[in-house]
Amino acid sequence: MSWPALYTQLVGANRHATSLGKIWLSVLFIFRVMVLVVAAESVWGDEQSDFTCNTLQPGCENVCYDQFFPVSHIRLWCLQLVFVSTPTLLVAMYVAYRNHRDKRKLLQVCALFYYDYGKVIVMTDKMMMYALYVVYDGFQMPRLVQCDQWPCPNLVDCFISRPTEKTIFTVFMATTSSICMVLNVAELVYLVIKAFTR
Amino acid sequence: MSWGALYAQLGGVNKHSTSLGKIWLSVLFIFRITILVLAAESVWGDEQSDFTCNTQQPGCKNVCYDHFFPVSHIRMWCLQLIFVSTPALLVAMHVAYRKRGDKRTMLASNGTEKMTDSTLWWTYTCSLFFRLIFEGGFMYALYFVYDGFQMPRLVKCEQWPCPNKVDCFISRPTEKTVFTIFMVASSAICMVLNVAELFYLIVKAAMRCMTRSSRRKHTYPDSVTRDNKKNEMLLSSSTDSSSNKTMC
Questions:
Q1: Is the predicted pLDDT of residue B112 greater than 60, yes or no?
Q2: B89 touches chain A (CB under 8 A)
Q3: Closest Cα partner for B201 from B10, B17, B28, B24?
Q4: Strands B154-157, B52-53: pairing kind
C-alpha cells in the first residue's frame, strides 16, 4: 500500500462525490500528498543527523532531539492524510454494499448524505493541525532550542537543521489543510441544503 | 503520488491542447521535470552536509546554512512545476464536466442546443495566464532570494553563535550555477511558448469572430446541421481542439 494505491482507491470512490468533493480530492493529492512526497520529505530527511548541540556529552543530542521532536512533522502529515482519506473509502464501501444488496442504484440523496457524514469526520483534519500547533507551539520552527535534559550538562544550545525551509513548508501544509476544510464545509452546507429542498 | 502520476494526468490534458500546448508539455517534462529528478536532485543532495564553515563552534554551520539558503533551489523548482502544471488539470476537469453536460443536453433537446464553447476557450486562456504568472513569480522569487542566478563559492556569516565573521564554503557552486541557468532558460522557453499560444488563441478567435459576423449577413439554412456536427466533434475524443476553440 502506498500513495499511488491510495490515490487509485480514492479516485474510484470519488465517482459518488459532488463537484466540490472532486476539487477537494485534487487539492489533497496535488498540493498535499505530492508536495509531501517530492519536497517536504527531503527537507526533513536530515532532521536528526543535522541536529547539532553545543556539547561533547554523549547521548545529549539524542535526548534533546527526542524532547523537542516527539513526533516528526512528516509523520504527523502522513497520519493526517491517511485519516482524512479513510471516511471517503468507508462511504464507498457502504455504497457498494447497498448497491449489491438492493440490486439497483442507491438513491443519490442517501449516498450523498453518508458521504456528507463521512466529510464531518474529515474535520479530524483540523484536529491533527491543532495537535501539530500544540506540540510545536505554533507553526514556526526556531533556529535554537535550549535543552537541560539529563545527561546534558546544565543548559545546552541545540541548533535545528533548515528551520526557515521547515517553517515555509509547515505554513504551506497548514494553508492547504485550511483550504481542504473550507471545501468540506462548503460541500456539507450544499448537501444539507440540497437534501432539505428535496 | 509522484512525478509519474502527474505525467499521466497531464498526458490526458494534452488531447485538448493546441500544438503549442503540446510542445510546452514536452519541454516541461523532458527539460524540466526529468532533468530535476535525474540530475539536479543529486547535485543539491549534499548541499547541507558539504556546506563547510571555518569554525569549530557547534551550531554555526546550521545557522549560516539556514541564513543563506532559506528555501533550497530544488524545493522551489518542485513547487514551481506543481503550480505550473495545475492550471492544465483545471482545463481537463472543465472538459470532463462539459462532456458530461453536453451528452445530457444532446439527448434532451434532440441536438437543437446552440453550441457555446466560449467558456472552454476562456478556461484555457485563463489557465495560460495563471501559468505565466506562476512561472514569472517563481523565477523572480528565486532571483530575489539568491540575489541572482549565480552560486558563490564563499559566503561570510556573522549570525550568532558564530564568532565574529566566519567563512563558509558552498558545495559544488559551479555545477549548481550551470543547472540553475539551465532551469531558468527552460522556464523562459516555457513562458515564451505560453505567450505565443495565448497570442495565437486570441488572434484565431478574433479571426473567427470576423468570419462569422460576415457570414451572418447571408442566411444559411444548414446552420443547425453545422452546429450538430460541431457537437459531435466535441464529443469525439480524437478531435483537434484548435478547431473547437471559438469565441463567437
A1: no
A2: yes
A3: B17
A4: unpaired
Q: Which three cell numbers stand for residue A198?
A: 428535496
Q: Which residues pair with A144 in a beta bridge?
A: A159
Q: Are A18 and A191 within 8 A, CB to CB?
A: yes
Least confident of A131-140, A164-173, B201-210, B222-231: B222-231
- B138 has which bridge partners? none
Query: Does B1 sit within 8 Å of A4, measured CB to CB?
Result: yes
Question: What is the four-CA torsion angle of A77, B82, B237, A11, rounded to 10 degrees?
Answer: 0
Compute the distance between CA of residue A124 and CA of residue A80 in angstroms, rounded to an integer: 8
Q: CA B35, CA B73: separation in Å to the nearest integer?
A: 13
Contact A111, A16 (CB under 8 A): yes
Inter-chain residue contact B5 with A4, CB threshold 8 Å: yes
Nearest CA in chain A to B85: A30
- Tell me the average pLDDT across B191-202: 92
Alpha-carbon torsion angle B18, A11, A180, B92, nearest 10: 10
What digits encode the pLDDT tens for the residues B12-40? 777 777 888 888 888 888 888 888 888 88
Secondary structure E strands in chain A? 52-53, 144-147, 156-159
Amino acid (one-letter) located at B88: A
Please report which confidence band the pLDDT of residue B78 belongs to, taking 50, 70 and 90 as the band edges.
very high
- Pick from A37, A42, A53: which is nearest to B58 by CB? A53
Question: pLDDT tens-digit profile of A67-112?
Answer: 999 888 988 888 888 888 877 777 777 777 777 776 555 555 555 5
pLDDT at A173 over 80: yes
Of A54, A160, A168, the CB nearest to B58: A54
Where helices occur in B58-172 by DSSP H, the ranges are 60-68, 73-109, 118-145
Percent of chain B clearing pLDDT 70 (strictly above): 80
